Predict the 3D structure of the following.
Amino acid sequence: MSAGETLDVARVRPPQAALALLNARSARGLGALPVALAPDGTVTVCVADGTDFALRDRVERLLAGHAVRFVEAADPAAFPAALRENYPDAALNGTLDRPEELFAYMLRRALALNASDIHVSPDEAGARIRLRVDGRLTPDRREPPEAAAEFVSYIKVLAKLDIAERRAPQDGNIDFPLDGRTVALRVATVPTIHGEHVTLRILSQTAQARQLERLGDLGMNPGQSTLFRRALHAPNGVIIISGPTGSGKTTTLYAALRALAASDALHLVSIEDPVEKPVAGVTQIKVDGRQERVSFAKALRSVLRHDPDVVMIGEIRDGETAATALRSALTGHLVLTTLHTNSAPAILTRLTDLGVPPYLVAATLRLAMAQRLVRRPCPACMTWRPATEGECRACGWDPADPPRLPKANGCAYCGGTGYAGRTAVYEMLRVDDAVRAALLGGRPPTIADPALTLRGDGLRKALAGETTLEEVADVIDNDLMPL
């Protein structure tokens, strides 16, 4: 950041490594907020008045050993609130190690960064607290052993877990009041050699999640959107989405359910483990995975007696559920579900591996999908660069006329990562006569149109500036990055 540049402090997301360079008393007392730490050690510090050279001199002395860049707050009136958010009163008073103060601070920080999970990972020195932001686990704080143990116990009390049980996994939920709202969290603990690892999944919807409630906002290209909508409006059949954990499958399914529920003329039922969030117009059933009183297969058999038009099954985990789901499509139901495979064509192979007869797959499957999530370049610091000759060869572009590709640089608004938010990349296989013939003939099905593959959609999004080639290579196909 150059001298004289202003910064919107309400949007700043400083990494903990930058904040740790100044203690709370110095930062709050001086009115200086470290907002970025570059790989070369340069620290960017935001101040209310960039012409206060005495302040600048004191900050430079405190940050001796680092080159310091100063930037002014665009709105000086908002600067005190940003200081309090990043250096709360508990840090100023030396009480941030208290479990209740630390929990509220980490939750505020996770929400500000749009994190999906908070991890408390024990080790010999205490515990690391890390946040999963845009799919990447980011170190945030380290707590000493005593404070870490108290923090874990406090979380277990909030989640109504047995604090005396430290040798068995436990699961629970927390509805935590914070700044005038209630934050819903799912809690899971597991014993390790150094203590209990705790993972908190943030279930409350962020503004970013609310933007993905409609099908048109999911990032499908026109061809993909047409295929998906046609399959959704079929009178019967099965739509299966595959992808690793955290690839956005549930978001896609919920958007599809909302689109179907808009007419209010269909009975929609979902069977989930757990129910991630309520969807208006859908009867949602929670599977009891531990007691097996309500398994996916049992719930599905029961649901079919309640005259559903559309059934959403959170996940196919076994052959019984797979066969029941596909057979229900033969009786006039539309079934939406997920399955763990690496690609859309592999869904067909996986179903037969689970013992589903190929003729049943051919008769009922309408659309096989795969998806991944890739990070978006931060719009505040993204620049463009020409593709290299090696990248052109790997991606099938003309080296004589290389396309422009986005470059993620890093700034105070994205915490120095160069990325802000994520978008989905899709692969779709429409089950037509050719695919059915391949399935029944024992041949692996293929996707004829490259634009409908994960690789093709990823490259399209990279050229459009919606992600970077590095992200596509990292998440989808590392062969895209030449050696």
User: Anything to note?
Assistant: The radius of gyration is 25 Å. The chain has three domains: 6-82, 91-204, 208-480.
